[in-house]
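Lay summary. Proteins are chains of building blocks that fold into shapes, and those shapes determine what they do. In this project we predict the shape from the chain. Here is one chain we studied, written as its sequence of building blocks.
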Amino acid sequence: MWRTSWENFMRGDNRFLSGLRGAMVNSSPAVAAHAEGEEIEVLESTDVLPVAPEDYDPENSGFISTERFRDLLAAHGSELDPHKLEVLLALADGNADGKICYQDFVNLMSNKRSNSFRRAILQGSRQLRNSALREEVGLGLSRRLVRHVAYETLPREMDRKWYFDSYTYCPPPWLMLVITIAEVVVFMYYGLQLNRWVLQVSSPYFLKGPLPYHPQLRAQAWRYLSYIFMHAGIEHLGLNMAMQLLVGVPLEMVHGALRIGLVYVCGVLAGSLAVSVTDMTAPVVGSSGGVYALVSAHLANVVMNWSGMKCQFKLFRMAMALVCMSVEFGRAVWLRFYPPAFPPCPNPSFVAHLGGVAVGLTLGVVVLQNYEQRLQEQSLFWIFFSVYTLFILCGIFWNIFAYNLLDVKLPPPP
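And here is the predicted shape, written in a compact code that computers can read:
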């Protein structure tokens, strides 16, 4: 079992987990239970290392002693990437019980690390005396960018090194780029159509399109998400686009499009529903709900891991991020209470910003705190996700019944 795992790790074969499942079935019952029902793929191995499995796990128990594991590293560690070797050494040094669970080894190989495994890595890393990733020289431009992103987003050196070795630009950070490009295209289209680039919202035709949220059209469910592609003016688009690219793209490179997309979409939906509940007569435009979810989650993660974050000028940059968020939020508040060009329809609401911040400080923080760990195993994730789901359901019922029960006087449809 250990021999198969080690061989595939040395070869860098991304399919090794399927082969490991076959080995797990023959190990202890607890390990085998995790493999039931999963498809087993037999790997064809051409490179065989001189490692006999009975030398390291003679009882086929699913565990290996840390002493024997270190012997394995000493014998074949030269074939590993040095950063991955550091992680394995930290694993060996961090297990106080003197043995390493086979499932922890599988989790390491699949980049799905448990909390106990992370604690073992961190405990072991304190005993290692290796150079920091920042001290490495001779890196190309693309690798320097990956290293920069690692220091911008991850608070632990082991995670930074593991990310640096694992990231391949495949797939690239496409989600934030696609959303940003779509927003620019829509803005340019309406700029040409309305012949207006600053405060487009003052045009009588601005809200007539199929994208912005309007309380009279709240039955058109797609508007609770599509409003992000409309912006009140070039100043609105510029600030949102800058924060979306400077924060969203690095976060997507580290945590992936699925997780960052989850936080972004949750912020967008929370923003529009928050407006429909608290500012019932106002329309909504702009991607601030999603952007503020990402930025607030990242800033909270930096504050919670202040000593571990090694990004340069972090205090100054954090202050600048807060200034940009405050300027954008102040602009939105000013615009909301500015006399509308076409009463009785008010200007777009600012409450979507607050909905995004609420998502970022709860669900977003949990996502960013659990790099390369299974979110479904984090109880805090399910707590916040359940609260968020409850809010969505309440918002839906509110939109269905509250407007009629409260006899809200809505502005005429655009």
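What the prediction tells us: The chain has 17 helices and two strands.
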